[in-house]
Amino acid sequence: MNEYPDIQLHIDGQWRAGASGRSLPVRNPASGEVMAQMACADLDDIAQAADSAERGFAVWSRTSAFERYKTMRKAAQLLRERADHVARLMTMEQGKPLAEARMEVMAGADTIDWFAEEGRRAYGRVIPARQQDVYQLVVKEPVGPVAAFTPWNFPINQIVRKLAAALAAGCSIVVKAPEETPASPAALITAFIDAGVPGGVVNLIYGDPAQISSYLIAHPVIRKISFTGSTVVGKQLASMAGLHMKRMTMELGGHAPVIVFNDADVALAAKTMVASKFRNAGQVCVSPTRFLVQEGVFREFVTQFVEHARKLKVGNGLDTASNMGPLANPRRVSAMQSLTDDACAHNAQLVLGGKPLVGAGNYWEPTVLTEVPLDARAMIDEPFGPMALINPFASFDDAVREANRLQAGLAAYAWTRSARTAQQIGAAVQAGMVSINHLGLGMPETPFGGVKDSGYGSEGGTEALEAYLNPKFISQAGLL
Q: What pLDDT does residue 359 have?
């Protein structure tokens, strides 16, 4: 395990331990073994990170968009060159198969590139005036230092969206990275430091999430909050940010419906959705969860879905034969057991899996439940694990009613050969993202965010960059 390093904080251009010397163990979810220690920030460290971001903002906001672009592109290239090493760290701390981890690192580099380019095009505009000799200008200015809070399921992806957008806009940032997966975020930050980002512009801390969030959100230096995580915590942070008039981006929980119509390509739908459902052991905010299958193809879809799921090899993510790794922590195993037991108590049909694997590590079998009553907890609370819930429906209206029943509204999927049905379902489903007949979510250039209790704002596309910019209107009369 000596290839996994002890993790430090990064504040004001320096890697260091916390002021109190306090640390937490980092465990391998595949074995439960302690791999290293992670430094924890106390209040003095958090305050120094905010002060550092203020100084960094003074430098970075005056750096031209073109110079910021060049530095960011260099960071992206360094991340690509280090992809194998970073991916291995991620698999060791998070559990996902090595191929998935490497894909995440490479996608992170693409995200940096895209925002670097987009930052060069954060144009203002000239508004025609009603009077002669008056110029009306709109300029875009960086909003200020940013506090970003990220979860453990995608240690690179969730940070890089916030980090790249902030830096492209000219903002500095304090990243509160996940304590369970600290090494890959540190490697990402290292790529930016090695690329030449000035000291203070990027700060990285770990520690007590409640202490860090309450301090940074209230701090007058911080002008923008970005959070990815559960709806419950997101609402708490949003209320705190609202008290201090801080701009927010909130990417919260989902419970994505998948609507399979009678005219769908069932074989393609089953194969594609198994790959999506069990990616990262289902620990994905846009993971397909509630499968709504029209009665005419219900049995066929269940049969094919289960056939593909049964072939998945669950094991250590470092084993190249593994298709699915362990869950990130023991809490997720307990949650899966509780949800499965509850669904079966409500007379759901357990078709596949439904129990942990014997031995060390946080392993849970790919699980498929059918005909699950709506009052089962799994049909209300996001499972966030390798659990597929498959129910039949009769009509288009029935499917839409169930898809929109919950307050979650992040992602949705549909399968149909009908252009008319595709258009109608895209309009009817209440979600921030809808993907029809393929997996088309999460590219840097496309919006990424939800509606209702799944949050607001975007972490992709031009909309994401705009969240880090303030429009300023300047009206100027002619000068002698």
A: 87
